C-alpha cells in the first residue's frame, strides 16, 4: 500500500514536469524535429546522461536498502525496433504527444485527448492481434 | 513560487525525470509509459482474442497507479500552475503560420488540431485518432516509447533502444517535414 502511494506521488511529479517543461507540447515537438531549439534535447539529453550515471551506480550496488535491483535488458532484435520506432515517431510528431504526456494532457479536460488516448490503446490492441505477422 | 509558474527549464525537467526513474528502480520497477496501453487492453478483455493480452493485470497495476498520478499531475498543472502558450523559435512559428497554424504562441494546444471544432470534422477526428493509433502501435511494436527507450533504455546503454530512438527520429522528421505540410 505504501508503494502505491509512492507510485501515485511519482506519477504526479512526472505529470507536472511534462506539462510545465512543455515536453508534452505539440509545438515543442514540432520545433524539436525542426532542430530549432535545444530545449527538448536538453531535457532528454540531461535525463540520459544523469540516468546513465544513476543506472551504472545502481547496477553495481545490486541491492537498494535490502531490495534487489532489477534493470531489465531489452530483447535482441532490429526490425521491430526500427520499424516500430518509425511508426511511433510518425504518430509522436503528428499528435505532439507520446504516451506519458498523453496521460498528463488528459488533465486539461480536452475531449480530443481522450480520442488520442483511445487511438493509442486501439493501436496497442491491433498490434497484439497482428504481432505474429510482423517482422522482428 | 514565481519560478514554479514559469515554464520549467530543461535542466530542471531532466533531473526530475531521472529522480522518478531512480525511485522506480528503487521500488523494483522500470520507467515505462506505453506498457500501460497493453494493461488497458487486458482490462478491456482483449485476452479473449489473443494470448498477447492474456496477462495478469494485477502484476502491472502499479503502472496504472503511476499513470493515474501522471493524469493528476496534468490536472494540477493545467488548473493551478499557469500553463501558458509555449514560446517556440521564431522560425518554427513562421513555418507553422505558413501552414495555417494561427494558434502558435497563443495557445498551449494547436487549436487547428485539438479544439472541439477541429475534432468534430472528419479530417480532424481522423488526424487525432491516427496519431494516437501510430503511437500505440509503434510503441508496442518497438517495445517502448520515449520513457522506456529514449530515457531508461539509453541510460542503460541498450543498443535496441538506440535503434528505436533513431526510428523515432526518422518517423518524426518525415512527419514534420513531409507529411504535415501535405496534411494541413
Key features?
heterodimer, A: 136 residues, mainly alpha, two-stranded antiparallel ribbon, 6 helices, 2 strands, 69% helix, globular, B: 184 residues, 10 helices, 67% helix
Topology record:
The complex is a heterodimer of chains A (about 140) and B (about 180).
Chain A: H1 2-20, H2 26-33, H3 39-61, E1 63-64, E2 67-68, H4 79-95, H5 99-105, H6 111-130
Antiparallel strand pairs in A: 1-2
Helix pairs in contact in A: 1-5, 2-4, 5-6
Chain B: H1 2-5, H2 10-26, H3 35-43, H4 61-80, H5 90-98, H6 111-114, H7 116-119, H8 122-142, H9 146-155, H10 159-183
Structure, described:
The complex is a heterodimer of chains A (136) and B (184). In chain A, 69% of the residues lie in helices and 3% in strands. With 136 residues, chain A is an all-alpha fold. Chain B has a domain at 1-86. Chain B is built from ten helices and no strands. In chain B, α9 runs antiparallel to α10 (159-183). The longest helix of chain B has 25 residues, at 159-183. The mean pLDDT of chain B is 96. The chains are: A mainly alpha (136), B mainly alpha (184). The interface between A and B is large, with 114 and 126 residues.
Q: What integer value in Å does the Rg of chain A equal? A: 18 Å
End-to-end separation of chain A in angstroms reads 39 Å
Please give the count of helices of chain B. 10
**CA distance, first residue to last residue of chain B:** 39 Å
What average pLDDT do the residues of chain B reach? Answer: 96
